[in-house]
Automatic annotation (TrEMBL):
This is Carboxypeptidase. The lineage of its organism: Eukaryota, Viridiplantae, Streptophyta, Embryophyta, Tracheophyta. Coiled coil: none annotated. Its main location: secreted. It comes from Deinandra increscens subsp. villosa. Belongs to the peptidase S10 family. Residues 1-20 form the signal peptide. It comes from the Eukaryota. PROSITE patterns: CARBOXYPEPT_SER_HIS (PS00560), CARBOXYPEPT_SER_SER (PS00131). The keyword Secreted applies. GO terms for molecular function: serine-type carboxypeptidase activity.
Length: 485
């Protein structure tokens, strides 16, 4: 079920099975292969090359009438009386190859015309944005039975029109009829296809063409989101086709710089009582995270660091783990938004792999999985996204970096070290932010970028802290800091 690394040298010990195979594990496989000897993962994303390129028109197909065909009548198991406009289907991004990306779109139930359009991307690389749609911030969550849905009172569609994209081809329902396409999955092609998707989707839903547009995502989407935003801005400057009205990005527990994120990870393990002093010292003695290659000693001590953690949920270190993955809870009592099921990925898989659900979503029969097993490797992955972050700031984009503070995979220390490397002037000093008289988290505003934490949230922030996550997201869209008391 794992993406096979391109070059095999020695692996980070993967976490115990119960926690294996979700977004950040794909990330660690990739990092491992990037830092291995003989790696053929290209590490660069050269801003200048692309900036000087001539614009070449992208594929745009007529989309008349397709939106109506994509309208979802009702999702199987949807609560009675749920009155929302949902759409889903494929958008072709390359007709020659026969490559199409799947989307799920939820219009805000109230006053949708006055609300922005937000694209959501999960990470991996190679994991599905249906994780976000059905386990984090979408209008429904799946009950523990894997068959029925309950309403998420804190859905992000309360404040925005939410577009979820499965990307690149090979992830979830997104596919290519040219199977060799799967061998070319990487940062660059992912951004290029997502851009073509977007301009075609805007033809299908033309009422959104001039709407304020934002992109949000988490984990390895710390690459996808800034890279797509960059692609859009670059094309907006040159295109005679669609201008996308992008205003900003919000990225959560985002991997944006290999060196600082790696250091932050091991410091977090140590300061959260998950690692010994000896192992922590050895890591900083033997590992050079600035280098693009690892050493046997470094691999040995990083493996030790993961062993020392034991079988905990590294994505949410104080949460229970999934002990009965294949035993679905048949209780008729509906699930609760305040009680996140640790077996969520099995539940998600059960629901989206159901043929009636796939029919309702307008997709062909697919063995749906939350992380891709058809993409054999990742061809290019920038070592750092910081130059793109700088470019976005210089181009006036709103930029929020948020972090659930109980995640040990892409922890708050990783985000802090990465942002520190940008050396931005501080505009609002570190302070708590409040929701319902409780501290929702902490924030520090830099010139051009906001760092904000969510207290008690793991890697998938809205899963465990839905109310705080929605408060944060609303503040982001309004462009105001959440309250200081
Ligand atoms: C790793 O770094 C070396 C030296 O800086 C460079 O020559 C090489 O191309 C890099 N390898 C990759 C895969 O980027
Ligand atoms: C892929 O092939 C199938 C079967 O020929 C076809 O129905 C479908 O439209 C093709 N997909 C794309 C995106 O062209
Ligand atoms: C856009 O420019 C390209 C060449 O750069 C040209 O082929 C195309 O016809 C133009 N399209 C429109 C809509 O003007
Ligand atoms: C690290 O190396 C030591 C000595 O060779 C070995 O005993 C140990 O098993 C290794 N640990 C890991 C986690 O690979
Ligand atoms: C099943 O779900 C119900 C309602 O949420 C809960 O009370 C019960 O403890 C769950 N049982 C198991 C075995 O998880
Ligand atoms: C999805 O369902 C099909 C048919 O029941 C099954 O063969 C396949 O293994 C399932 N895939 C996953 C990822 O669970």
């Amino acid at each position: 079920m794992m993406i096979k690394p391109l070059a095999i040298f020695c692996f980070f010990a993967l976490f115990a099975l119960s926690n294996a195979d979700i977004q950040a594990n794909k990330l660690f496989e990739l990092l491992k292969s990037k830092r291995s000897r003989n790696s053929d993962v290209l590490n660069t994303w050269n801003l200048l090359d692309e900036a000087t390129d001539e614009y070449s028109p992208v594929y745009i197909a007529p989309q008349d009438g397709l939106a109506q065909l994509d309208k979802i009548v009702a999702l199987p198991g949807q609560p009675a009386g749920a009155d929302i406009n949902q759409y889903s289907g494929y958008v072709t991004v390359n007709p020659t190859a026969g490559r199409a990306l799947f989307y799920y779109f939820v219009e805000s139930p109230t006053d949708s015309a006055s609300k922005p359009l937000v694209l959501w991307l999960n990470g991996g690389p190679g994991c599905s944005s249906m994780i976000g749609a059905f386990s984090e911030l979408g209008p429904f969550r799946i009950n523990s039975d894997g068959k029925t849905l309950f309403t998420n009172d804190y859905a992000w569609s309360n404040v925005a029109n939410m577009l979820f994209l499965e990307s690149p081809a090979g992830v979830g329902f997104s596919y290519s009829n040219t199977s060799s396409d799967y061998n070319h999955a990487g940062d660059k092609n992912t951004a290029a296809d997502a851009y073509v998707f977007l301009v075609n989707w805007l033809e299908r839903f033309p009422q959104y063409k001039t709407r304020d547009f934002y992109i949000s995502g988490e984990s390895y989407a710390g690459h996808y989101v800034p890279q797509l935003a960059y692609t859009i801005i670059l094309n907006n400057k040159k295109t005679n086709q669609t201008i996308v009205n992008i205003k900003g990005i919000a990225i959560g527990n985002a991997w944006i710089d290999d060196e600082t994120c790696s250091k932050g990870l091991f410091d977090h393990l140590w300061t959260h009582a998950l690692n010994s002093d000896e192992t922590h010292d050895a890591i900083f003695k033997y590992c050079d995270f600035a280098s693009n290659s690892s050493s046997a000693m470094c691999d040995n001590v990083t493996n030790k660091a993961f062993d020392e953690m034991g079988d905990i949920d590294a994505y949410d270190i104080y949460a229970p783990i999934c002990l009965t993955p294949n035993q679905r809870n048949t209780s008729t009592i509906p699930g609760s938004i305040n009680n996140f099921d640790p077996c969520w990925k099995f539940i998600l898989n059960f629901y989206l792999n159901d043929s009636m659900v796939q029919k309702a979503l307008h997709v062909k029969p697919t063995s749906w999985d939350y992380c891709s097993d058809v993409i054999p490797g990742w061809t290019d992955s920038a070592v750092t996204i910081l130059p793109i972050i700088k470019y976005l700031i210089e181009n006036g984009q709103r930029l929020w970096v948020y972090s659930g503070d109980t995640d040990a995979r892409v922890p708050i220390t990783s985000s802090r070290y990465s942002i520190n490397a940008l050396k931005l002037p501080i505009e609002t000093a570190w302070r708590p932010w409040y929701l319902n008289k409780e501290v929702g988290g902490y924030l520090e505003a830099y010139k051009g970028l906001l760092l904000i934490t969510v207290r008690g949230a793991g890697h998938t922030v809205p899963s465990s802290q839905p109310q705080r996550a929605l408060a944060l997201f609303s503040s982001f869209l309004e462009g105001i800091l959440p309250p200081s008391s």
